[in-house]
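Saturday, quiet lab. Running sequence design on the structure tokens for the scaffold JK sent over.
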């Protein structure tokens, strides 16, 4: 699946910019700076497909990528929870994220990325509430497992799994990943490949 090129198609600032609903879509959502764009790059085995940055708020559009070998579309989303950008911008992103996540028939699964040093925050819970209400499938992926402060990572994993187990709908297992060190990427690729077969 990820052996063949994945190419950048376009950036969308409004729903009307999105391509037609002719492919299976997966989206990467999460707080600003959690590592969404880095994870897409790591999955695709490149460092330059999706733009990443140390500064939160890097991704400002719905960036669309497509596989050249499979009917798969990957959507890199702007982050939520970033207060430093001008308010109208934050509002526009929030609305776009909300509309895309809850109103896209071809959206097969959302990967909700959460920092493995912190676990779920209030805005992550809000997004999961929204996805559950809209009956959209999602899987929680903990990121940055390699970070020095992650010595309590097992605690965060356990706490996150417990939080997901209590949710109203069933969800695939929480995965622990590092885009830097490659941890968990094989498992995530397998999950995505399974989605395409189902
Ligand atoms: P926005 O687009 O701003 O919402 O951010 P994002 O979620 O796309 O995060 P991005 O991929 O740009 O990564 C943010 C920062 O975290 C960058 O400096 C990355 O190098 C770093 N980062 C991402 N993943 C990892 C990881 O697995 N390990 C480590 N150590 N750093 C990571
Ligand atoms: Mg990004």
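Result came back. Writing it out in full:
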């Amino acid at each position: 699946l990820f052996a063949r090129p994945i190419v950048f198609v376009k950036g969308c600032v409004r729903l009307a910019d999105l391509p037609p609903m002719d492919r299976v879509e997966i989206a990467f959502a999460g707080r600003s700076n959690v590592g969404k764009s880095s994870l897409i790059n790591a999955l695709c085995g490149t460092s330059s497909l999706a733009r990443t940055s140390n500064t939160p708020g890097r991704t400002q559009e719905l960036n669309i990528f497509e596989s050249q070998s499979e009917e798969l579309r990957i959507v890199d989303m702007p982050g939520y929870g970033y207060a430093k950008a001008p308010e109208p911008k934050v509002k526009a992103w929030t609305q776009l994220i909300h509309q895309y996540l809850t109103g896209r028939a071809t959206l097969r699964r959302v990967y909700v990325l959460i920092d493995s040093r912190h676990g779920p925050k209030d805005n992550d819970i809000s997004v999961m509430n929204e996805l559950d209400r809209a009956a959209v499938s999602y899987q929680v992926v903990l990121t940055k497992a390699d970070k020095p402060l992650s010595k309590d990572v097992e605690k965060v994993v356990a706490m996150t799994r417990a939080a997901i187990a209590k949710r109203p709908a069933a969800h695939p297992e929480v995965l622990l990943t590092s885009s830097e060190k490659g941890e968990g990427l094989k498992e995530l690729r397998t999950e995505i490949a399974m989605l395409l077969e189902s």
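Notes for JK: The radius of gyration is 16 Å. The chain has one domain: 6-197. Ask whether to fix the surface positions before the next round.
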